[in-house]
Amino acid sequence: MFQMSVNPFIVTLVSFFSSVILTFLVRGYARKHEFVAKPKSDRWHKNPTAMFGGVAIFLSTLLMYALFVPKTKESLIIMGGGSFLFVVGFIDDFLNIKPYQKLIGQLIGAGIVIGSGLSLPITGYEVIDIWITVFWLIGITNALNLLDNMDGLAAGIAAIGAFSLAIGFGANDQTTELIFISAFVGALVGFLVYNFNPATIFMGDCGSMFVGFLLSSSVLLNQTGGRSRGVFSILAVPVLILFVPIFDTTLVTILRKMWGRKASQGGRDHTSHRLVALGLSERAAVLMLYAFAVVAGTLSLLVSQLALTQSFAIISVFIIILTIVGVYLSKVQVYEQQDADLAKKNNAVFGFLINVSYKRRIFEVFLDALLITLSYYGAYVLLFESFENTDNWTLFLKTLPLLIILKLSAFLVVGVYRGLWRYTSIGDFVTFTKAVALGSILSVLAILFLYRFQNFSRAVFVVDAIILLFAIAGSRMAFRMIRQLLPLPTSAEGRKVLIYGAGDGGEMVLRELKNNPEWKYHPVGFVDDDPLKKDKVIHGLRVYGGDGSLERICREKEVHEILISSRRLSLKRLNEVKEICRSADIEIKRAHLKIEPVEFE
Fold first, then answer.
1. What is the dihedral of CA 129, 265, 212, 149, to 10 degrees?
2. Nearest to residue 89, comparing CAs of 262, 209, 233, 187?
3. How many independent structural domains does the chain possess?
4. Which of 50, 435, 460, 492 lies in disulfide reach of 30, CB 3.0 to 4.6 Å?
5. Same domain, 458 and 518
6. Cα–Cα distance between 512 and 499 in angstroms, integer?
């Protein structure tokens, strides 16, 4: 009765308010009957929190579907499969059923959807495509379930993914599908009113399984990728829309296997937890993952509109960034040291992987080969708006292998692979410049010798060199840039330290403290006897003057230790500092290459 000329925005708005009201009622009921999630050692929340928020999401979506969404065979099947998974999750919330029992339920739900004729047309062979679709539906359902590990994370990421899907439906004039997904978006956002940090209700398995299954099934309706555009586009669009849960599940599964833990067990080692361990607040960690989801959703829309090679180039850049981020996050310590020692002792696979990790030069070579390809391609795209299926495209393909070999050889000769990413500096940038310049010169000479440079553009090689230089430098600086973007993690057990000496040695000490949070040192500032350095700032920390105010500064900043970083400190001044530390019961240590206690005379 309400299905004529339905406005998707109105459906979203009505669904939002419906979800807000239903979530409020469900929360009250759960609290009254003590259906709450109690804190556990392997869970993130610290206070008892109401459960069954997924009931509100499900009922709101179902109500909006009944009132506003035009009924089609596909939407009825997807809603039916989602409802079945909601029931499975609801039973799991009450009885905590076995993983294999949940898997059977997910297989039944997948069978319901695939039985209606929906599948990912990847290979053209029906049986293979059916099993790929089964893997997709079950994989995303469980990925959303695993992602539900921090306030507002799963619901927010699902809402962003559904919104990206809605834009795709709208762009392809799929009105029925747009209204259907709009009702789902409204239900998720309404639930977020109570689920965002600090959450007062969780969705539970009934919610995560319903949300994950409905979202992964709805992707099968999406024509944004175009079923006739090829395997790459068909795969890229849904993967990008649901990138965050896929990335998180992949990262967690690999790292848990490395540490000898079960991938299915709970834990505080997800992407969100690692971001918090790096110093972000819970809200900031969730918002950062929201941002990743928005970027991925935007890319999914671009991929659906661009040519295949352009889409491939964009996805390749995105994968490079994600790989670097994943490697960085994998280094964040989330397990106790004794767990690491046990894993090393009992898990041969762990030892093998650790050994392989030291062979990261292989990874660098493959990365640089990809960067060389993308830079060369990017130069052609910038200078020739559409060069595919032209003579320039033929020249590009013909010379690409040659450029990769010559430039990698130049990188090797100049010394690009001798440095450590963590300590990349201006000196390394000079090395990169020399390597790129040598590689470009060799490439031009080789093309001149082999092809007499006929029909080649000189500007391409200039632009290519510029892009490649920044790509190489950016990849090597990635770890330091990530570290600078994140705040310095502090610990309640950390000792507040004042660094004496605001020169090169002091800056080096500060970097070492930042790079080694396990030392549990919390720098609060510098102190220096040079009056020209007073009140200056180094990496966000103030430099205090050493003009008789050291004792007051230590008292105001509640300093536990002073680290002497300067070798130029006179014996007289050193003795004065020692006396101040003795009277204030403050430890004093010398911190050049390593931190050593300073003996009191």
1. -150
2. 209
3. 3
4. 50
5. no
6. 12
**Residues 6+ positions from 253 with CB-CB distance below 8 Å:** 263
Query: Rounded CA gap, 21 and 57, in Å?
Result: 11
Domain boundary among 467, 483, 499: 483
Residues 248 and 318 in one domain: yes
State pLDDT tens for residues 176-212. Answer: 999 999 999 999 999 999 999 889 999 999 999 999 9
Q: Are residues 428 and 513 located together in one domain of the fold?
A: no
My answer on whether 526 and 451 are in the same domain is no
What local confidence, expressed as pLDDT, does residue 360 receive? 65
| Residue 249 pLDDT | 86
> Phi then psi for 122, rounded to 5 degrees?
-85, -55
In a domain, 372, yes or no: yes
User: Among 367, 229, 429, 364, which residue's Cα sits nearest to residue 310?
Assistant: 229
Which residue type, as a one-letter code, is found at position 239? V
CATH number for the domain spanning 554: value is 3.40.50.720
Same domain assignment for residues 243 and 384: no
Query: What distance in Å separates the CA atoms of residue 38 and residue 222, rounded to the nearest whole number?
Result: 39
Burial classification of residue 312, based on how many CB atoms lie within 10 Å of its CB (0-12 exposed, 13-18 middle, 19 or more buried): middle
Kindly state whether residues 500 and 461 are assigned to the same domain.
no
Amino acid identity of 452?
R
Q: Which amino acid would we find at residue 304? A: S
Structural domain includes residue 350? no
- Backbone torsions φ then ψ of 523, nearest 5 degrees: -65, 135
CB-based contact 168:234 (threshold 8 Å): no
Last residue of a domain, one of 312, 344, 376: 344
Beta-bridge partners for 337: none
Q: How much is the pLDDT for 601?
A: 43
- Amino acid 530: pLDDT: 82
Q: What span, in angstroms and rounded, lies between the C-alpha atoms of 241 and 297? A: 5
- Report residues of the chain scoring pLDDT below 70: 1-5, 39-46, 222-235, 258-267, 334-360, 420, 422-423, 483-494, 515, 517-518, 548, 592-601
Q: At what angle do helices 175-195 and 73-95 cross, to 10 degrees?
A: 20
Q: Are 360 and 475 in contact (CB under 8 A)?
A: no
pLDDT digits (tens, 9 = 90+) for 145-180: 888 888 999 999 999 999 998 998 888 888 999 999
The single-letter code of the amino acid at 155 is: A
Find the domain containing 503 and state its range.
490-597
Asked whether residue 449 is assigned to any structural domain, the reply reads: yes
- List beta partners, residue 542: 537
Is 352 part of a structural domain of the chain? no
Q: How far is CA 273 from CA 261, 276, 280, 404, 434, in A?
A: 17, 5, 9, 39, 40
Cα dihedral 349/350/354/359 (nearest 10): 20
User: What is the C-alpha to C-alpha distance for residues 478 and 144, in angstroms, rounded to an integer?
Assistant: 28
Is residue 334 located within the same domain as residue 424?
no
The answer to whether 416 and 435 have CB atoms below 8 angstroms apart is yes
Task: Tell me the longest C-alpha to C-alpha distance in the chain.
Answer: 91
What would the DSSP string read from start to end of 502-526? -SHHHHHHHHHHHH-GGG-EEEEEE
